Amino acid sequence: MFALSGFTKSVSFRPLFHILPTLRYSFYSTTIKRMGVQKLNEEERNTLLSPLLSDSWEMVQDRDAIKKNFTFKDFNEAFGFMTRIALRADKVDHHPEWFNVYNRVEITLATHECKGLSQRDVNLAKFIDNVYATFTN
Ligand SMILES: C[C@H](O)[C@H](O)[C@H]1CNC2=NC(N)=NC(=O)C2=N1
C-alpha cells in the first residue's frame, strides 16, 4: 500500500486523464459520428421535411436535395449570415453548397455520404432558418 502510493506520487497519470476526453472526442468524431448516415425515409420526409418545404425550401430537380434563396440588405449582412452558417457547418462537419452575389445567398443541402437528404440536412436547414430570422427582424 505504502509502496503503491509512493509509485503513483512519483509517476503521475494526470496527463493521461487530461487527454482522455480529447481521445474520446476524436474517436467519436472520426468513427462513430461518421458511421452510416441514412437517407430520410418516407415517414421522416412527411414529418421532418414537409415543414421545411412549406417554409420556402424546395426540392432540387433531378436530385435528392433541398434549396432556398435568401436576400439581405447588402453584402455585409449576407456575408455575416454566411459566416454564422460556416462556423456551425464546420463544427458539425456538414457543409452547404452555396452561391452568393452581393445581397443574395442561394443554399443547397444534401448529404454526400448517403447521396441524398438525411437528418443532418434537416438540422442544418433549421439552423439556417433560425439565423435568417435574426436578420429579417
Ligand atoms: C470527409 C468528411 O467527413 C465529409 O465529406 C463531410 C464533410 N461535409 C459534408 N457535407 C455535406 N453536405 N455532406 C456530407 O456528407 C459531408 N461530409
UniProtKB/TrEMBL annotation:
Pfam families under this entry?
A: Pterin_4a
Keyword Amino-acid biosynthesis among UniProt keywords: no
A single Gene Ontology MF term assigned here is:
4-alpha-hydroxytetrahydrobiopterin dehydratase activity
Q: Which UniProt keywords apply?
A: Lyase
What InterPro entries does this protein's entry cite?
PCD_sf, Pterin_deHydtase
The protein's enzyme class = lyase
Per its UniProt record, what Gene3D superfamilies does this chain match? Transcriptional coactivator/pterin dehydratase
Catalyzed reaction equations: (4aS,6R)-4a-hydroxy-L-erythro-5,6,7,8-tetrahydrobiopterin = (6R)-L-erythro-6,7-dihydrobiopterin + H2O
- One GO term of the biological process aspect: tetrahydrobiopterin biosynthetic process
EC no. given is 4.2.1.96
Q: Which family does it belong to?
A: Belongs to the pterin-4-alpha-carbinolamine dehydratase family.
Name of the protein in question? 4a-hydroxytetrahydrobiopterin dehydratase
Q: Which organism is it from?
A: Rhizophagus irregularis (strain DAOM 181602 / DAOM 197198 / MUCL 43194) (Arbuscular mycorrhizal fungus)
